[in-house]
Amino acid sequence: MVPITPIHYLILAAALFALGTIGVLTRRNVVIVLMSIELILNAVNLNLVAFSRLWGLNGQVFAIFVITDAAAEAAVGLGILIAFFRNRETVNMDEVDLLKW
Fold first, then answer.
1. Phi, psi of 56, rounded to the nearest 5 degrees
2. Fewest Cβ atoms nearer than 10 Å: which of 1, 55, 70, 76?
3. Range of the domain at 59
4. Is 28 helix (H, G, I), strand (E, B) or coil?
5. Structural domain contains residue 38
6. Residue 75 sits in a domain of what CATH number?
7. pTM score, two decimals?
8. CA 41 to each of CA 11, 38, 69: distance values in angstroms, whole numbers, following the listed order
């Protein structure tokens, strides 16, 4: 049986980051884009904890800060999304630029 090393966590984090980046760049739905951003932030958290385990740093503390930042980003993003949906009745990224008018 192969022991799980920090390299395994880094490979998983790279895969999560790649999936999140692909989701942000290719999707038109704002909800999916927000979920993809959350995937990217979770990949960063996984990297922080893996390096903390590897080198004995305080990566868990930084991961908690990233989690709170992600929660605030999700709350503000969903609030803006709900306001946009009430005005335009769509969550398409192509029409988000209409907010500036």
1. 75, 30
2. 1
3. 6-93
4. coil
5. yes
6. 1.10.287.3510
7. 0.81
8. 15, 5, 9
